[in-house]
Amino acid sequence: MTVWTEITGQGEAVAELARAASIDPRDGVVPTASGVSGPEPGGLFDGLAEAPSGSGDPEARSSNASAMTHAWLITGPPGSGRSNLAYAFAAALMSPDGRGDENTLRQVNARTHPDLGVLATENVSFKIEDVRRFATTSYYSPSVARYRVMVVEDADRMTERTSNVLLKALEEPPERTVWILCAPSDADMLPTIRSRVRTVRLRIPDVSEVAELIARRDGVDAATAEQAARLAQSHIGMAHRLATDPEARRRRDDTVRTALGIRSVGGAVLAAARMIEVATADAKAFTESRDAEERESALRSLGVEPGAAVPAQLRAQLRSLEDDQKRRATRSLRDGIDRILVDLLSVFRDIVMVQLGRPEAVINREFGDEIGRAAAATSPARTLETMDEITVARRRIEGNVAPALALEAMLVSAVR
């Protein structure tokens, strides 16, 4: 097992990051586990080392050094494995030989490595005070690893103001600190940040690649893994959920069945309400138990007995937790609604495929008969218009339009 074992379908990105991680931070040399410069026979990095330590070839040594930089931006569509790749890269960077050892990987996966900094949010956006504190810690020297690694998940959720705080840290990087930012696209970042990072672009993995990963990692049978990967459209996280959670599969089937059953404006309004209910239930299932555990833990840390009244002087701390939980619930609901819209896009894509004589390309094969009837009832041009309306609804929700209104308007337009 290597740090890259669970990265699927990203061979070029892995090769680039593995090359960078293998550079010795002291002189740009590729180290080996034995401490002797040069590639280790049969290792992951065979053929990557160009110049051993003390090489008289300055161009080769320069080539080694240029493979590494202090700031990286990993971009790719949702579910492509941005965060997984970021942490695999972090584990390789912090391991003694740049290849990733089991102990370092275990600590990184648990987010407990002393030289790993993680900035993530379950809210709609980052708080500026959190970003400011995080940027300050980037100036600490690594305590046990070769590098101090700062990972920022969902960097696109930074406002311009918080991005400027991060920019200051990127402009004056410490010698042994490496930044790894994750975002769907480099266009989501400020131009001033884009100019200071090296971008690694991920592709959407093939369904077969995701299915193989899910079957191997989650222990499900091949048929279930293939179905989950196909319905998730190669979104690794969603494929995992569909493969391991029957209730998630049921909710998705309910959404597809509801969409294919719309015949009138009234039906569209009812369908929108039903989909909001599904998204709300999904978000509640995701956050409710966690919220209760966090509240119980907070009360315990404050010395408040279960069921006892919270003293007035402690209510502000509890209120801060509740505010964070509300923001997380808002994001979870938005993410759930967006996932419903992505599922609807897959349905209308399937309808277009049938209309164009490509039934073998259908994603939602379990609804083949219903999709065939829907394809016969309309034209490809009208189906494409509906797909455009779904895209508009996603943009509106992202722009803080009430999700129920955006979803209802989209479904009503689809049946007119």
TrEMBL record:
<dbReference type="Pfam" id="PF13177">
    <property type="entry name" value="DNA_pol3_delta2"/>
</dbReference>
<protein>
    <submittedName>
        <fullName>DNA polymerase III subunit delta</fullName>
        <ecNumber>2.7.7.7</ecNumber>
    </submittedName>
</protein>
<dbReference type="InterPro" id="IPR050238">
    <property type="entry name" value="DNA_Rep/Repair_Clamp_Loader"/>
</dbReference>
<dbReference type="GO" id="GO:0006261">
    <property type="term" value="P:DNA-templated DNA replication"/>
</dbReference>
<dbReference type="InterPro" id="IPR027417">
    <property type="entry name" value="P-loop_NTPase"/>
</dbReference>
<dbReference type="GO" id="GO:0003887">
    <property type="term" value="F:DNA-directed DNA polymerase activity"/>
</dbReference>
<keyword id="KW-0548">Nucleotidyltransferase</keyword>
<feature type="region of interest" description="Disordered">
    <location>
        <begin position="26"/>
        <end position="64"/>
    </location>
</feature>
<keyword id="KW-0808">Transferase</keyword>
